[in-house]
Amino acid sequence: MKIKNYKHLLDVINADTEVMVTISIWTYSSKRMTFKTTFNSLKRFLNKDMFFKHGDFELKFTDLSGESFKSHISKIKIAKVDYVEY
Hints:
Elements: H1 6-16, E1 20-27, E2 33-38, H2 39-42, E3 58-62, E4 68-72, E5 76-85
Antiparallel strand pairs: 1-2, 1-5, 3-4
């Protein structure tokens, strides 16, 4: 099997083992927030290189501790993937 990009690699690994992603988010009105969630809950917001997509949508997910996050992408200053675990 040929791996096309980083997101495809995580999709392949996620088929056998659940992939966990730790992300950091800064909005214009808050300090750094860190969340640990499943790859499945974030992958629709990520491009092939694991950067958050641009556009007109809301970033919405629930982390492992049950904390929900919801914000329009235009209100997010920085969003980055910190760690990937499987």
